[in-house]
Structure to design on (452 residues):
């Protein structure tokens, strides 16, 4: 059966949307932290649909919220109202008031990239049509036209980003930064380099006569996701925001991958002491059940002059199923002391990774914030990126024949990073200590297999 399906896939599916490893996998069932193949073999998932399924596959409470809505009001056009949309917008906006003392509004869409487009439209119009944006090297904001334009990958931007101009600024990726500079120093250095752009009109972004920049906003991920789960220095965003404020540039924080407690806080930017002007969310807000995304923006920005009624509309935006699950998700996390649990599990997982690093020379770097964890795979020198080895790891992990505790099983891993040599680990936030122990044992077995 698997052979038949793979043959059909090879013939009839566009391959623009799939990553083909030499061991393609068809999954059959999922539960908790696991995916299962047709034979019933378990694969411990350490990537959870690119951090969309933060609360485990088949989370009973969220599934119940979905079916409740399914049986009551699953469909209604977005020009009419339903309680879940209103409650969700209020909850997100009130949370922002509590955290930052900032008042704002919420605008929904369906996928992450579409919400990024909404943020682009918003800041562009709020800043009188300025179409140039800053973004980070290694940043990822999606694959629609505008989102591709501000995503640094040359390959995708060149193909699909035929839109506004983006200027890419170095992110303080300390592990690959200049030797002999500590992490905070390197962060300060990156901010200084950015601030230099405004010293003279010859640097291309600042008109001293008009006293304005041509750029509307800086799109950031507080922790880079696809860029390899890179965690910046503690003070980096505080210093960066000072420069942005000086020159009237808006801060747009993309929380699509790192939001919803991935890092132990609702929004990952909360670790870094700055208030966004616009915040973009998606993925885990619905535990990956029914797509929903959106932006929160300050009142000054998201007003009827910039977004006139009906101007920024999509059929499935603010759909009842998505908003109902998102509402339940946020209520669930705010009820429990979720942040502390994620922080404790993350520290425990990271200690396991550090222990692996001591025993495997090919691990160049491990780091983590909450349950956003990274393992950088290198040559035996522990530094030169080794993409081939990490590809091999993913392939062997998916073959499902790692043996731990006498049981055959697999691992679901994903690759990120500037050199595509980083395992970006995003396990379920409900992962147990036993499952973390198992994850470390499986990674150990995998590393032994691919390096022996
Ligand atoms: N921004 C970030 C930070 C992301 O990680 C992603 C998805 N990986 C997107 C935007 C795009 O979201 P989507 O794939 O839902 O369009």
């Amino acid at each position: 059966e698997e052979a038949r399906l793979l043959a059909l896939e090879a013939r009839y599916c566009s391959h623009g949307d799939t990553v083909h490893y030499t061991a393609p996998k068809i999954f059959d069932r999922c539960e908790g932290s696991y995916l299962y193949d047709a034979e019933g073999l378990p694969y411990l998932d350490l990537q959870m649909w690119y951090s969309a399924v933060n609360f485990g596959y088949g989370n009973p409470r969220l599934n119940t919220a979905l079916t409740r809505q399914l049986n009551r009001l699953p469909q209604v056009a977005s020009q009419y109202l339903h309680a879940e949309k209103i409650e969700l917008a209020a909850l997100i906006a009130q949370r922002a008031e509590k955290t930052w003392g900032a008042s704002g509004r919420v605008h929904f869409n369906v996928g992450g990239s579409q919400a990024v487009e909404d943020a682009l439209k918003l800041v562009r119009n709020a800043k009188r049509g300025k179409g140039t944006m800053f973004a980070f090297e290694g940043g990822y904001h999606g694959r629609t036209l505008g989102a591709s334009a501000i995503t640094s990958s040359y390959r995708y931007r060149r193909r699909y980003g035929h839109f506004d101009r983006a200027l890419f600024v170095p992110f303080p990726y300390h592990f690959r930064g200049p030797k002999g500079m500590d992490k905070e120093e390197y962060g300060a250095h990156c901010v200084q380099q950015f601030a230099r752009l405004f010293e003279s009109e010859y640097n291309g972004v600042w008109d001293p006569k008009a006293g304005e920049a041509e750029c509307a906003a800086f799109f950031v991920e507080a922790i880079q996701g696809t860029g390899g789960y890179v965690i910046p220095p503690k003070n980096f965003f505080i210093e960066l925001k000072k420069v942005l404020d000086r020159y009237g540039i808006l801060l747009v924080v993309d929380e699509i991958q790192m939001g919803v407690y991935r890092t132990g806080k609702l929004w990952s930017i909360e670790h870094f002491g700055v208030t966004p002007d616009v915040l973009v969310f998606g993925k885990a807000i619905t535990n990956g059940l029914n797509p929903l995304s959106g932006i929160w923006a300050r009142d000054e920005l998201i007003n009827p002059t910039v977004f006139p009624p009906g101007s920024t509309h999509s059929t499935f935006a603010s759909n009842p199923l998505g908003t109902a699950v998102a509402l339940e998700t946020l209520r669930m996390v705010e009820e429990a002391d979720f942040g502390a649990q994620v922080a404790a599990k993350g520290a425990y997982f990271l200690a396991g990774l550090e222990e692996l690093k001591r025993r495997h020379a090919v691990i160049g770097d491990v780091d983590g914030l909450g349950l956003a964890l990274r393992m950088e795979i290198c040559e035996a020198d522990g530094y030169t990126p080794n993409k081939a080895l990490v590809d091999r790891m993913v392939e062997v992990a998916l073959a499902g024949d790692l043996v731990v505790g006498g049981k055959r099983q697999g691992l679901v891993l994903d690759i990120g990073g500037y050199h595509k040599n980083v395992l970006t680990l995003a396990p379920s936030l409900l992962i147990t200590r036993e499952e973390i122990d198992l994850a470390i044992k499986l990674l150990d077995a995998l590393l032994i297999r691919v390096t022996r």
Remarks:
- Residues 50, 111-113, 116, 140-142, 221, 225-226, 254, 256-257, 282 surround 4'-deoxy-4'-aminopyridoxal-5'-phosphate (CB under 6 Å).
- The radius of gyration is 22 Å.
- The domain at 2-59+337-451 is CATH 3.90.1150.10 (Aspartate Aminotransferase, domain 1).
- The mean pLDDT is 94.
